[in-house]
Design a protein that fits this description.
The chain is built from 19 helices and 48 strands. The protein is an alpha+beta fold and about 850 residues long. Among the domains are: about 180 residues, Topoisomerase II, domain 5; about 80 residues, Gyrase A, domain 2, CATH 3.30.1360.40; about 170 residues, Neuraminidase; about 160 residues, DNA gyrase/topoisomerase IV, subunit A, C-terminal (Neuraminidase). The strands form 14 sheets. Strands 25, 26, 28, 31, 32 and 48 form a 6-stranded mixed sheet that branches. The protein has a 4-stranded mixed sheet with strand order 14-9-8-17. The protein has a 4-stranded antiparallel sheet with strand order 10-11-13-12, with helices on one face. The longest helix is centred in the middle third of the chain and has 42 residues. It is elongated.
Length: about 850
């Protein structure tokens, strides 16, 4: 009360300012209790067995009910409520999640589908029992620590004695008060291998594996700790020229959410598709049909960039250890789990040893009792104490070899031996039984002395017994970064009003510039020598007297701008060549010397670094002798946009005429193929394919006998069955040996590619036809080894065997005998004819492939040469 009065007085004196009131008393205690309860009892798994409390109680209940047959899930849920003080719906949902991980529960009925997101049937319709794996590794009442259930009526395990890194195999996710956890699932076999490596003192690395498959980049996984990240993609391939097929989906998505994201991206204009078919049943199969004229390669990248076909997952390993939440990595979790398994195996061996020794002790006592007929000593005894004492006295002369003293309990057990057993007692069998116990005791002691080897054998046995069908499903690969502006579908048209100075997508009555997307930028050059870059919008004012406008491509080093301008109102004229790789958006940059009234006299944008020849015409003033001459832009070096340029003339220029079209002054670009990510690049990663000019193409041949040539665009995707990828030389023949399935014979053929724009198959399309070998050398040689050992290997000189024919020709028959193997030999020497190459200027410009062929054509057609005077 006093505190309230103080706050009122404070408020009146200083105004309605915020005050801090500390929460004390029961509020503080209640919230702390609630937070602790959610962390420890609901959301975060324990590190010892890898289970949350609800999961632990479900499995314990299933063990209570286990009789080898299936139980209704509704019955299991009801039984679990004796241990778990929550509703049946939450228990049933948790049980379905355990079952869908396909490790601990043997399911029957409709348990839902992790691929499609379909829910499981009601718990009264589905059944479950513990899997054999769960029975082997999860339960052992002798090594379990127990506690009273929430109502005190029953016992429940504090932790289940799990002898396997279950937490990493299943993964876990939960949100508590003030913290959360997200542990990704890992591969069953790889976890066992890592445990064995840890036991042997070797290092190991763990990466996630998902039941949904997909492709993952785990380079930034950071051992599953906070701050790590993995990227996972759907597996997309080209079904045919107009169809893509998705066969695996990223973790955390379903076919339904994936298709919805694709449709949304299509509605927003990011991608362009015709229709989607979902044929998913046991396996994922989503067919994405494309309209004509849409690149499948570009669409694959766009699906990764704008839809759920690529997801980013941030792991966070939080677990309960000693009743406290701790943040550790997956490697540490595996080490702790493996060490815990080792301790449990030791406990089990010690218990087993104790039991065997007790059996040996009593079997030895029993043998002494019967062999020496000590039971007769009790005939005269009238009291129970006398019976006990008589047996004790009778045993004393024969117990020197026993390993412990005889207790009253031992004597009582001897008195309980039936007369039938005494009458049928076989000394030899008793001896053999004791010896077998001694062998078992020796074996258990040996296991305890070599505990590490015993644990390794235990893990190996798990892998052999349960590892079938648990191979890795998620492919590990490094991803290349996809630049959204390069793959976005440009389905909006950009217009310009040069005089009034507006650019935008709503100016449909004005001049068309190019197709664009809403994430694109626009580059604008004005007559006063000012350049600016702005984002695509419906209508944007950029300044009057626009001389050039285009969709801007960031880091584009191949587009070169040629420009002449007058410095100030009556100053000299300059010329310059420059490129623009990146600037601050909506900032004006002056490309002239900066003096007032400067004006651009001539300007061209050249998408491939072209340098034209122009004619300068001066105004006839005074005693000027030379009024006209030619200037070649290729004589000028490419510099930064801020350079002043070279002087053209100090006199007034009347007009500038284009004399001849420009040729590229840039080097042929070197292109590499990175096999790790299966992509082309210009960064020197992978194998060098060669130097490529504008007209050069790549040759691609796959195992199915399909050959094609393509332009070397950096967005191209390559199939897994590709066997040849190299720079295409039109004059070089292609040689092949193949088996014709229809004729059941082997043929040799040599051919040229007549139509570089057409994809063709050069072996027969019979289902049994098979390509044995293909060579792209000028004069190839091959060795053929036959299946029959009686046939000697032969050498094939392709050049002598057959002349170059058409791609559809059958070829010459090689043999009817079955071939075991074909080996390529060193090709014969070939002297290529000398070709005079056209020299180009050695400009320091490197192509990064931001312009594809379509963009280059449009840029050249629309903005190739623009003479102002």
């Amino acid at each position: 009360m006093q505190e309230e009065e103080y706050n009122e007085e404070y408020s009146e004196e200083f105004g309605n300012q915020e005050t801090i009131t500390k929460v004390t008393g029961m509020y503080k205690d209640w919230f702390l209790d609630y937070a602790s309860y959610v962390i420890l009892e609901r959301a975060v798994p324990g590190i010892r067995d890898g289970f949350k409390p609800v999961q632990r109680r479900i499995l314990h209940s299933m063990k209570d009910l286990d009789d080898g047959r299936y139980n209704k899930v509704a019955n299991i849920v009801g039984h679990t409520m004796q241990y778990h003080p929550h509703g049946d719906a939450s228990i049933a949902d948790a049980m379905v999640q355990i079952g869908q991980k396909e490790l601990l529960i043997d399911m029957q009925g409709n348990w839902g589908n992790i691929l499609t997101g379909d829910r499981a049937a009601a718990s009264r319709y589905i059944e479950a029992r513990l899997s054999k794996f769960a029975l082997d590794v999860v339960f052992n009442p002798k090594t379990t620590n127990w506690q009273a259930s929430y109502d005190g009526r029953r016992k429940e395990p504090i932790d289940l004695p799990v002898k396997f890194p279950m937490l990493l195999a299943q993964g876990a996710e939960g949100i508590a008060v003030g913290l959360s956890t997200k542990i990704l699932p890992h591969n069953f076999k790889e976890l066992i291998d890592a445990s064995i490596k840890h036991l042997r003192g070797r290092s190991f690395t763990l990466v996630p594996d998902f039941l949904t498959g997909g492709i993952a980049d785990v380079s930034a996984y950071n051992d599953g700790k906070r701050g790590g990240k993995i990227r996972i993609r759907a597996k997309i391939s080209q079904h045919d020229k107009r169809t893509l097929v998705i066969t695996e989906i990223p973790f955390g998505t379903t076919t339904t959410t994936l298709i919805d994201s694709i449709l949304k991206a299509n509605d927003k204009g990011k991608i362009k598709i015709k229709k989607i078919e979902d044929n998913t049943s046991a396996n994922v199969e989503i067919l994405v049909h494309l309209p004509s004229g849409i690149s499948p390669d570009k669409t694959i990248d766009a699906l990764y960039a704008f839809t759920n076909c690529e997801n980013s997952i941030s792991p966070l390993c939080c677990v309960i250890e000693n009743n406290k939440p701790v943040f550790i990595g997956v490697s540490e979790i595996l080490k702790l789990s493996t060490d815990h398994t080792l301790e449990l195996l030791k406990q089990e061996l010690e218990i087993q040893l104790n039991e065997l020794e007790e059996q040996w002790h009593f079997a030895s006592l029993e043998r002494i009792f019967i062999e020496n007929r000590i039971y007769r000593d009790i005939e005269e005894e009238e009291t129970w104490l006398g019976v006990i004492k008589a047996i004790d006295e009778g045993l004393k002369p024969h117990i020197k070899h026993l390993k412990r003293a005889i207790t009253e309990e031992d004597i009582v057990r001897l008195t309980e031996i039936r007369i039938k057993k005494i009458s049928k007692f076989d000394i030899d069998k008793a001896k053999q039984f004791i010896e077998s116990l001694e062998d078992k005791i020796a074996a258990v002691k040996n296991h305890l002395e070599n505990l590490i080897d015993f644990a390794i054998d235990y893990f190996k046995n798990l892998k052999t017994k349960y590892g079938k069908g648990k191979e890795r499903k998620t492919e590990i690969r490094l991803f290349d970064d996809i630049v959204a502006t390069k793959v976005v579908m440009r389905n909006t048209k950009l217009y310009v009003n040069r005089e009034e100075g507006f650019v935008g997508t709503s100016l449909k009555r004005d001049e068309y510039v190019d197709d664009c997307a809403d994430i694109d930028d626009v580059i604008v050059f004005r007559k006063d020598g000012v350049m600016m870059i702005t984002k695509v919008d419906a209508k944007t004012f950029v300044g009057k007297d626009i001389i050039h406008v285009a969709v801007f491509k960031k880091n584009d080093k191949r587009t070169v701008y040629n420009m002449m301008y007058r410095d100030g109102r009556s100053g000299p004229s300059y010329m310059k060549r420059f490129n623009v790789t990146g600037v601050t958006r909506d900032k004006e940059y002056n490309l002239t010397a900066g003096n007032k009234a400067s004006v651009v006299l001539y300007f061209t944008a050249n998408p491939n670094g072209e340098a034209e020849v122009v004619t300068i015409n001066l105004r006839a003033v005074g005693s000027i002798k030379k009024l006209k001459w030619d200037i070649d832009f290729s004589d000028l070096a490419i510099k930064g946009r801020g350079s002043k340029g070279n002087i053209v003339s100090k006199y007034t220029i009347k007009k500038i005429d284009l004399k001849s079209e420009g040729v590229s002054t840039l080097k042929p670009r070197k292109i590499w193929f990175d096999e790790v990510v299966q992509r082309l690049n210009v960064d020197g990663r992978g194998d060098l394919l060669g130097e490529f000019k504008g007209e050069d193409r790549l040759l691609i041949i796959n195992q199915k006998g399909v050959v094609k040539t393509i332009k070397p665009e950096l967005t191209t995707h390559f199939d897994a069955d590709m066997i040849v990828l190299e720079k295409w030389i039109p004059e070089k023949p292609i040689s092949a040996i193949y088996f014709d399935g229809e004729k059941e014979k082997y043929f040799v053929k040599r051919f040229m590619i007549d139509n570089p724009n057409k994809e063709e198959i050069f072996i027969s399309e019979h289902p049994k036809s098979q390509l044995e070998i293909v060579a792209t050398d000028y004069r190839p040689m091959a060795e053929v080894i036959f299946s029959k050992r009686s046939l000697e290997p032969i050498e094939v000189n392709f050049e002598e065997f057959i002349a170059v024919k058409g791609i559809k020709a059958l070829g010459n028959q090689l043999t009817t005998d079955k071939i075991k193997q074909v080996n390529m030999l060193e090709p014969l020497t070939y002297e290529a004819p000398i070709i005079n190459e056209v020299e180009v200027n050695d400009e320091e410009i490197i192509d990064d492939g931001t312009l594809d062929s379509e963009d280059k054509t449009k840029e050249s057609d629309n903005d190739g040469q623009t003479a102002l005077f």
